[in-house]
User: What shape does this take?
Amino acid sequence: MGRADLIGNGKHHLIPTFQPATDGGYESARRKNSTQAGQKVAPNKPRSGQLLTQHTGLPPRVTGAKPAPRGKPAAKRGPR
Assistant: This one.
C-alpha cells in the first residue's frame, strides 16, 4: 500500500527515517485554529441592527412543503 522506498536517509529518499526534535515552538495553522476536544463553543449572538441570515441566527424557513419522507427509500424500477 505505502511507498516504503521513499523513506530513508539517502539522496533518493524524500522522508528522513527520524524527524528532528523540536522545541515545541512551531504550531501549525490548522492546530492553532481548532478547539480542544470537549470544549463547547458559545454561539455568537447577533448585534442590534445586524442582518440575520441562516448562518447568523435566522430560524428555518416555513415553505409549506411536505416534510421529507422518512424510512427506507423506494426501489427504482428500470424500463420494461
Notes: DSSP finds one helix and no strands in the chain.
